[in-house]
User: Fold this.
Amino acid sequence: MLTKIQELALIARCIAGDDRNAYGHLVKAYADDIRRMLDRLTSGDSALVDDLAQETFVKGYLSLRSFKGVSRFRTWLFRIAYNEFVNHTRCSRRIMEVGIDSVEQVCEDADEDESIIDSDMLAEAIDKLSPTMKAVIQLYYYEGFTVARISTILQMPQGTVKSYLHRARTKLALTLEKYENC
Assistant:
């Protein structure tokens, strides 16, 4: 990860001299982080991740002059990526809610000896969360952002982020409890 001074120096080179190599350094520094977040938000749809990541970096480059430097460039880029995901979700009308029927079906299909929750079960439970809850969980636990930083990325008050985090934990606990009881 780049320091804030390195980010600002590269951004200045991009804006002042239309230095695309400088932007390439920014892309290289944050591409894995952006792709990881998008991968979790899209439930592993690699083609969609590729499209959303590309759109994120293109929009980032085209909007670079509007970057004010108040937050880190990485935070700003995560916001663009999240907006791209939300716009895609809105357009395709694929809002995911926790479905009790699907959890019960998984329970019926599981072996009776399996009582340990593995990473696949956790990933499946996270996939059942709403896009906003999924984003909060992703940013908090997987990317290590603070509530304040998540608040900036998702453009919502810190109290709202805390509420989403609490609700997501509760839904995950209920869903995973059903997996354990199978």
